[in-house]
């Protein structure tokens, strides 16, 4: 009885060992089979990819190899590398693709320079051959009103360069000039060569006094000036520099009527001859006359001639380039 139990126990142990061994063997076989299957799948997939690539290469060859080559991700990520592309029909300059920040575009055009400054006072040239400036020196006088009335008949204007003492002597004449639209300017205090041209200080001193008197009487602050007997030869470079520094605009003439010499109607023909000699002259014609009764007596003849020839007689203003010797 005891022997029988012992045999059953041994048999059960052996059976357990056999079953355990079979179980381990089953697991091992299953794992090995799975790996084998996975390996076969991998090999099959690899073979499929190789076949696909082979077919793709064959297709490219059949198409003639005209398809553009695409850059790889590695190529694009590299800085300062040029992406190869097929040139267009009208190729533009090649540009490199870079990972640097894009620079702002250049302006479409260079900004236009700033406009040039306006011409300074007294530098603009009167561009007409039919403009004449009638100028009268040494006034005002008792006949200033008659000269202005005659000019009005022709719708002409003139410029009067006046002496300081005469401005105080005939204040109403000065005011009439201003209200009539004539130009008024300075012609010294002393009207003496040895006094006026003694020095730069004397030149500026007389012009300043002359200017202040005109401003007091007529309310006009004029910088137009004509020195006694004209600027040549008495106005030195030093004097001219002083005049410019003090903002005076110096005016001479290019037609001398010589009314002070002829003292009769001959001055009219002198003026006409000089005008004819300056035919084609560009710029203003400036006629020198004086406030004298002989000048006024024959002035209508000169104005008739100017009108018949289509001349305009204007008053000088500070924007016209001055005529100087």
List the secondary-structure elements in sequence, H or E: HHEHEHHEHHEHEEHHEHE
Alpha-carbon Rg, integer: 55 Å
Low-pLDDT parts are 32-42, 62-123
Amount of helix:
40-55%
Strand coverage percent:
5-15%
Name of the CATH architecture of the largest domain? Alpha-Beta Barrel
Q: Kindly name the structural category.
A: alpha/beta
How would you state the average pLDDT, rounded? 77
Number of helical runs? 11
Largest sheet: 6 strands, parallel
- Would you count the extended β strands for me? 8
Q: Could you name the CATH class of the largest domain?
A: Alpha Beta
CATH superfamily of the largest domain: Glycoside hydrolase/deacetylase
**Domain count:** 2
CATH topology term of the largest domain: TIM Barrel
The termini sit apart by 165 Å
**Spatial shape:** rod-shaped
Characterise this structure.
The structure is a single chain. The chain is of the alpha/beta class and 325 residues long. The chain is built from eleven helices and eight strands. The strands form two sheets. Strands 1, 2, 3, 6, 7 and 8 form a six-stranded parallel beta sheet that branches. Strands 4-5 form a two-stranded parallel ribbon.
Which key features would you list for this structure?
single chain; 325 residues; alpha/beta; 2 domains; 11 helices
Describe the protein's topology.
Layout: H1 2-62, H2 73-77, E1 131-139, H3 144-154, E2 158-162, H4 164-169, H5 171-180, E3 183-186, H6 193-196, H7 200-218, E4 224-225, H8 237-245, E5 249-250, E6 255-256, H9 259-262, H10 266-277, E7 285-290, H11 293-308, E8 312-313
Parallel strand pairs: 1-2, 1-7, 1-8, 2-3, 4-5, 6-7
